[in-house]
Design brief:
Elements: H1 6-40, H2 48-53, H3 56-65, H4 69-85, H5 87-92, H6 96-100, E1 108-112, E2 118-123, H7 132-149, E3 169-174, H8 185-198, E4 203-209, H9 215-222, H10 228-232, E5 234-237, H11 239-250, H12 252-264, H13 268-272, H14 282-296
């Protein structure tokens, strides 16, 4: 027979509140999952695609965001409706515009910060196609591909609230090349829907770098459509001032690659013959290629 020592008893008592938090968090996520199924059952029954999307990581985001089950469902429904309406695109995760012309869009995943979160960047000098639908499709596929290819690790410890840590992303918008052709606010409104509704709580930070004077009129036009949380995550700076900050958050190799990319994009001769891999920065593309070769060997 085993007799618990006083230390064992103390440890078990300390564990009990933590276990209760984890159990309650799991119950709240499952309640939300069931509520979503019930809501859509009469009009648009959820497919396996939506069921797989409702992971503990995803549902934890919505449980954290609101206090009551009804409020959580209210903010989940718009995201789910969007996913139902875009099932084909979400299943393929392929940008047809970039398939037709690989230079259509340049927004790419370049790597991960020191906390393991995603780092994306684009430069306004590069894309050949900035139409509303094409940009929306590209950004949708970019973010969905990143989440699918680099899923949350099961070994990540649960947060203090009992929910899994939500993967986040930093976007660097290099405004070199911004001009009147970017003044269509519909593009920004579509992107805000992706950031604020479809991928709630994913944004970690927006770096908006090297803003030209022509940008600020556009900024005043679209800023009212941003919620306070999104606006608070925007950092306006330039490459010179932000260099040390990026290095601190991303590490030296990734920060250096991003700066090299920015300098290349400011050289007209190099831009004229520039090519890139859809969705992926150079170093990450090379790493993915090596991994695929190793898996095939």
């Amino acid at each position: 027979m085993r007799f618990e020592s006083s230390c064992d008893t103390f440890s078990n008592k300390m564990d009990d509140p933590r276990k209760a938090v984890i159990k309650r968090a799991a119950e709240m996520r499952e309640d939300l999952r069931i509520a979503a199924r019930r809501y859509f059952s009469a009009t648009s029954p959820l497919t396996d695609q939506e069921e797989k999307w409702m992971t503990d990581e995803i549902l934890g985001i919505y449980v954290r965001a609101r206090q009551t089950p009804a409020e959580r469902l209210d903010i989940l429904i718009p995201a789910m409706k969007w996913r139902i309406a875009n099932r084909t695109e979400l299943k393929s995760r392929s940008c047809p515009y970039c398939v037709a012309n690989p230079l259509s869009h340049d927004a790419r995943l370049f790597g991960f910060d020191l906390e393991g979160d995603f780092v994306f960047m684009n430069c306004f000098q590069l894309p050949h196609d900035i139409s509303v639908d094409s940009v929306t499709r590209h950004m949708t596929c970019l973010m969905e591909s990143a989440l699918a290819e680099y899923p949350s690790s099961p070994s990540i410890p649960l947060g203090d609230d009992g929910h899994p840590k939500a993967r986040q992303w930093t976007f660097i918008f290099d405004l070199h090349g911004f001009g009147l052709r970017y003044y269509d606010p519909r593009v920004t409104l579509r992107l805000l829907e992706l950031f604020q509704v479809v991928h709630r709580a994913r944004v970690k930070k927006f770096f908006v770098l090297d803003s030209p004077s022509i940008f600020w009129g556009f900024w005043n036009m679209v800023k009212p459509f941003m919620n306070a949380d999104t606006a608070a995550k925007i950092v306006f700076s330039n490459w010179e001032r932000s260099g040390r900050h990026l290095e601190k958050e991303f590490g030296t190799p990734l920060a250096a690659e991003l700066l090299d990319e920015a300098m290349e994009n400011r050289d007209p001769n190099r831009v004229a013959c520039k090519r890139w891999t859809t969705f992926y920065g150079s170093s990450l593309h090379q790493a993915r290629t090596r991994n695929l070769m190793l898996k095939g060997s």
